[in-house]
Design brief:
8-stranded mixed beta sheet; alpha/beta; 344 residues; 37% helix; globular; 9 helices
Amino acid sequence: MRPGIGIIGTGMVGQMCHLANFAANPACRVVAIADLRPDLAAAAAQKFGIPQVYSTHRELLADSAVSAVVVVTKRRATGPIVLDALNSGRHVLSEKPMAYTTAQAISLVEAARQQSLVYSIGYMKRHDAGVARALQVLTRLRDDRSLGRMVRARGWCFGGDTGRSHDNFVMTGEARPDGLELWQDGPDWMPRAMRPGYDNFLNVFSHIINLARYLLGSSPTIAESTVETSGAARITLDFDGITCTLDLVNGSEGAWREGLTFDFERGAVTLELPPPFAEHEAEVIIDHDGQSTRLTGEASWAFRRQADAFVSDIASHAIPLASGEDSVTDIALAETVWKQRASG
């Protein structure tokens, strides 16, 4: 039986990146949506042909036709809604960040574990077909040593134009809703003045940290870090002796630039990521003996592949590529970086 998907939150990202992709997947049915903005929910339901509209996530979770939910709400409301969904026995795909503290994140993972549920976090870059090619290339090169040892890595994210090519969503003039339960937006020790920057750091830069872990190893240590109150940072992660330095700056008015380079003794592999909403794949460039080879594939979109993977994971009860359990590490690393900043 095809799983019944409920979408909680029908703003731009909810519609364009999630609702449209699940509605296009014949292996599932989008049976309901929920949003505190009634006009927006009705307009989205009409656009995408969704049969049931609810005003709150609790009403949606009372619908027995819903077997899994996608949570795309304001960031501080994500945790409480995900917890309600998991406690109701629903599989969950939630946008990142999954939480603001390690303790919050662990509570969600434990709720999923207790009911043996699929719990996936929206690190869609892991699902990018170009990233899959990069992982294959890196695995081969580290095994056969044809470029020698990997000696270091570096990454960057200079946030700019998000790459939205078309507006596949509807919007209304309704104000963003209040009345949602919100989790605390940082650890108890974090000063109030630091929390907006921490929020930005988790929202934008957790992607490249998560991706570095996916390609280099799941549990790095922090060798060095400098973070500004705005959220901009330089972080060096140590992956069992291979360091990866990440330069992170947000708010540029120019092009979105994000990627990773892996330096070997006799060459390098570079992964150039597309802007977050651009519907094309990451590119992989292999440099060897002064020659560059660019690997490209067919047109695909990470968000579409993420939606398809969630449906497949539910059917096979598989561990997601970006599982909740794995993603706790991203929150823990962020907490550590910012605690170092707070302590001077």
